[in-house]
Amino acid sequence: MRDKRFIRDHRGGPLKLEQHQQLIKWACRCANHVLSLLSDNIDERLNKALTVAKEWEKENASVGNARKASVDAHATARDSSDPISIAIARSIGHAVATAHMADHSLGAALYALKAVKNAGKSIHTERKWQNEQLPLEIKELILTTRKVKEKHFKI
Fold first, then answer.
1. For residues 110 and 155, is the Cβ–Cβ distance under 8 A?
2. More confident: 53 or 152
3. pLDDT for 155 beyond 80
4. How far apart are alpha carbons 53 and 96 in whole angstroms?
5. CA distance to 1, 74, 110, 121, per residue, from 152 (Å)
6. Whole-number Å distance between alpha carbons of 3 and 41
């Protein structure tokens, strides 16, 4: 069941536009932070998705643009056989999908952790870094929800 705390105020939930924008910004930071784990050139669909997410945050892109960019990022994941690349593409796909549904921001962070784990690096260090990036206004929302969702990701 969807956590109602992630539903925007214009749809009857408690989430304000500024918080939604903070969530997508944080999700993009999480996804960007693991990009260095890619050894190849970054697929243009992933770069475009990150650009669309940043534009949505500034109110310069539509939710429709974000959804298309998310679908394209997830297609990049399906096109790969490398577990690290797949996790990074999924992280980016969820980051941009945050425009559509704010709780996708958690997917960006969790797939970033999965990429770190697949690369044999410290998920504890990455999780700590992610937490340090959280604005105070959304920190409790993310931290309380991530504990529940992380179990499904087997991190």
1. yes
2. 53
3. no
4. 5
5. 14, 19, 10, 20
6. 36
Q: How far is CA 31 from CA 9, 74, 125, in A?
A: 26, 13, 15
DSSP string, 62-78: -HHHHHHHHHHHHHHHH
3-state secondary structure of 15: strand
Please name the residue that has the structure tokens 């939604």: 20
d(CA 54, CA 111): 19
Q: Which amino acid is at 82?
A: D
| Token pair belonging to 78 | 């399906």
| Contact between residue 105 and residue 27 where contact means Cβ atoms under 8 Å apart | yes
Which residue reads 């980016």 in tokens?
Answer: 92
